[in-house]
From TrEMBL:
Role according to the record: Catalyzes the dehydration of D-mannonate. Has no detectable activity with a panel of 70 other acid sugars (in vitro).
Necessary cofactors: Mg(2+)
Domain of life, source organism: Bacteria
Pathway: Carbohydrate metabolism; pentose and glucuronate interconversion
UniProt-listed SMART domains: MR_MLE
GO molecular function ontology, one term from the record: magnesium ion binding
Residues annotated as domain Mandelate racemase/muconate lactonizing enzyme C-terminal: 129-258
Top-level enzyme category: lyase
Family indicated by similarity: Belongs to the mandelate racemase/muconate lactonizing enzyme family. GalD subfamily.
GO BP, sorted A to Z: amino acid catabolic process; carbohydrate catabolic process
Keywords from the named record: Carbohydrate metabolism, Lyase, Magnesium, Metal-binding
EC code(s) of this entry: 4.2.1.8
Protein name: mannonate dehydratase
Organism of origin: Phenylobacterium deserti
Length: 403
């Protein structure tokens, strides 16, 4: 028995906000979990402080499944991004503790390694196609086997995924949501040209991905998928908003371009129909937003029945604690696809010392017991919370759209 004696929530902002749960047991072993929900960080911090931590004290840290079920069923108001991010943080911290007590990296507790490393994809973006491909060439030279391409759209001031800093992308960049303008008509002409030039310049040995970021209707997504088929994308992501999972049937009728969705999902129920009707090819749900390692394993096992592979979200707003947990999951899960890898800033890496390493286009979680990540509380205290929101999108006539 490893009795939980204390737990605390650490909010820090080394360039962007992160929320971390730290759990301590009677034998002095601690574990951490990421609880960051971009733009709603303080909601999860409160959910943990006010409604979870009081229920954890005195429980056995080794009872990961029972605690998961207690927090999920005991909430009465099940699911949702705040609840499931809080449960995820507890889950990650308990797997961290279990690994440390066992003296094993968490992937060994999940069934051991199923591969030598975790293929990741980098993020090439630019105002123009040429600038985007210059950055993509740089990622290719760094050894990346998979690269996401996002370029500016002529006639639009700003576009999802295009940032000033080419090695770091953070969309939550203002203390109230920025209003951006979107035009599907202008966008639809740009992406096929981007991919045509990308194959010309980068060749066929590198996987190319693109994030549509919820912007299209199903038939527009079908059109885009069909237009991109000659360039064989690894996937197009979030082609259309997925609350109504049946929307993807229409896309599937028109294109064989692989579809990825799920970074905004927080439970298996958000993707059950998408998976069982084989409407997608990759599920993007993450450790931090979909209930932790415990629940993500359930989603992956269900996906495996239908030939759907994992492609976990890994943006800068998921902390190194989540990245570490994701890599232990990725190394072991049988139906692995790819792991997103947006590098964090040096300040963030200093606050979250970690064992994972990058080489030859792959990440590896390392052999440290537990998750192999920690939080430097003293350094974290130097970066107080700073309100930051994701943008919103409107069409050129002012209609609210999906960002
Ligand atoms: C994006 C993210 O990484 C991705 O695929 O969709 O940048 C997303 O916009 C942010 O994580 C939202 O917080
Ligand atoms: Mg995305």
């Amino acid at each position: 028995m490893s009795k939980i004696t204390a737990a605390k929530v650490i909010v820090t902002c080394p360039g962007r906000n992160f929320v971390t749960l730290k759990i301590e047991t009677a034998d002095g072993v601690t574990g951490i979990g990421d609880a960051t929900l971009n733009g709603r960080e303080l909601s999860v911090a409160s959910y943990l402080n006010d409604h979870v931590i009081p229920c954890l004290i005195g429980r056995d840290a080794h009872q990961i499944e029972d605690i998961w079920q207690y927090l999920y069923k005991g909430a009465y108001w099940r699911r949702g991004p705040v609840t499931m991010s809080a449960i995820a943080a507890v889950d990650m911290a308990l797997w961290d503790i279990k690994g440390k007590v066992a003296g094993l990296p968490v992937y060994q507790l999940l069934g051991g390694a199923s591969r030598t490393g975790v293929m990741v994809y980098g993020h090439a973006n630019g105002e123009t196609i040429e600038e985007t491909l210059d950055v993509a060439q740089h990622y290719k030279e760094q050894g990346y086997k998979a690269i996401r391409l996002q370029s500016g759209v002529p006639g639009l001031k700003a576009t999802y995924g295009v940032s000033k800093d080419k090695m770091f992308y953070e969309p939550a960049d203002s203390d109230l949501p920025k209003e951006t303008i979107w035009s599907t008509h202008k966008y639809m002409r740009t992406v096929p040209e981007l991919f045509a030039q990308a194959r010309e310049r980068l060749g066929w040995d590198v996987h190319l991905l693109h994030d549509v970021h919820h912007r299209l209707t199903p038939i527009e997504a079908g059109r885009l998928g069909k237009d991109l088929e000659p360039y064989r994308p690894f996937w197009i992501e979030d082609a259309t908003p997925a609350e109504n999972q049946a929307r993807f049937r229409l896309i599937r009728q028109h294109t064989t371009t692989p579809l990825a969705v799920g970074e905004v999902f927080n439970s298996i129920w958000d993707c059950k129909q998408l998976i069982e009707e084989q409407l997608i090819d990759y599920i993007r749900a993450t450790v931090v937003h979909a209930g932790g390692i415990t629940h993500l394993r359930r989603i992956a096992s269900f996906a495996d029945l239908y030939g759907v592979r994992t492609g976990c979200h890994g943006a800068t707003d998921l902390s190194p604690a989540c990245m570490a947990a994701a890599l232990h999951f990725d190394l072991s899960v049988p139906n692995f696809g790819v792991q997103e890898y947006m590098r964090h800033t040096p300040e963030t890496d200093a606050v979250f010392p970690h064992a994972y390493t990058f080489s030859d286009g792959e990440l590896h979680p390392g052999e440290a017991p537990g998750l192999g990540v920690d939080i430097d509380e003293e350094l974290a205290a130097k970066y107080p919370y700073k309100p930051a929101y994701l943008p919103v999108a409107r069409l050129e006539d002012g209609t609210m759209h999906d960002w």
